[in-house]
């Protein structure tokens, strides 16, 4: 007697095939039938596990978040402030290189799709929140020694770094990458935090 | 006798309908038939003007570039360094608000599609190059008075601001906007330029 496949393993296989399709050909190509064939499974398998297109995309978002979370945990462990490059820069650098670029491309596709699908948006947000927390930690560690911690400033710096990283991930997915090491990226991130901080103090002094 | 439609005008009408479809429902919805119906024109009109899906997307990219270029020209005219907010911040602020957000969403969709379609990538790049030049001008104007102009540094600052703006446009297209005025945006851009400059001099000093 043949063992029936483990449903969790089968779901992962289908989601991984969908990630590859999303990265290569975009949302319009991530159909149930194409996923079946990409995964080398009988026609109808994807429909059996994920009834709708939205259910499939949501499962893909959750699979991406699961994979991302492992990387994030590894990055968070590198919290030694003296480590160069930082865990954050290393994480971003890895996510736009090699096999992980596929996942980044798929994530971009889902992000663009998310305003049209609230459940998908929710699934994506779960990871985004963890990622934002990592950025905020990095920003806090980059404050000048002895400085008062200003929550509004930390917010502005976190936002600016986050938008920069979002832009980098989008550009790299289009083949436009202009840094060669995580250390270069780290220096740009430190520059953003330093400059937004100084600009904000300058504005504060101006407003006195 | 009915006058036959002006072909240029007709092409514009079809492209504008396609921009709306791209923004609302993504690349997968920008089919010839849906564009016909969105534009309120007989079935087959879009296929008559743009034979393939790629030809349609390329025409849309050119239409977006034509509209963007008007805004860019207006922004470039605001070159008075004392004008607050700068032309660049004003341009970005406008492109993520009101009716122009539709165009920004459509541009994001095309950008994600572009690695799969070299002709589309070429059409998009024409505008990107002009936009990069505007960013570079803004960066040059933000150099500290009397500083030596260092081309590699200007490149790094331009790149960082460009990635930040790309991230802002992507996030705003997903409904995530966290600034309320062009002046706030301007201050973040100035902060990036200042900080990347200082970080770079610090690294230079460290390497001595």
Automatic annotation (TrEMBL), chains A, B:
GO molecular function, one term: DNA binding
Keyword Zinc-finger among record annotations: no
Keyword set, alphabetical order: DNA-binding
Name by which UniProt lists this protein: TetR family transcriptional regulator
InterPro entries xrefs: Homeodomain-like_sf (IPR009057), HTH_TetR (IPR001647), TetR_C_31 (IPR041583)
Coiled coil: none
Superkingdom field: Bacteria
Pfam family, one: TetR_C_31
């Amino acid at each position: 007697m043949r063992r029936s496949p483990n449903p969790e393993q089968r779901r992962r296989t289908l989601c991984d095939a969908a990630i590859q399709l999303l990265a290569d050909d975009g949302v319009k190509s991530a159909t149930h039938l194409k996923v079946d064939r990409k995964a080398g499974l009988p026609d109808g398998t994807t429909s059996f596990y994920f009834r709708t297109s939205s259910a499939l995309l949501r499962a893909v978002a959750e699979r991406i978040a699961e994979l991302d979370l492992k990387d994030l945990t590894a990055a968070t462990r590198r919290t030694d402030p003296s480590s160069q490059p930082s865990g954050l820069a290393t994480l971003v650098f890895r996510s736009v290189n090699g096999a992980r670029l596929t996942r980044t491309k798929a994530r971009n596709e889902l992000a663009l799709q998310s305003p049209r699908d609230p459940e998908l948006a929710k699934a994506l947000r779960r990871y985004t929140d963890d990622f934002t927390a990592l950025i905020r930690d990095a920003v806090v560690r980059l404050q000048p020694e002895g400085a008062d911690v200003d929550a509004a400033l930390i917010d502005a710096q976190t936002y600016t770094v986050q938008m920069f990283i979002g832009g980098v991930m989008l550009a790299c997915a289009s083949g436009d990458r202009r840094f060669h090491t995580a250390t270069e990226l780290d220096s740009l991130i430190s520059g953003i935090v330093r400059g937004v901080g100084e600009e904000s103090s300058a504005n504060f002094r101006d407003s006195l």
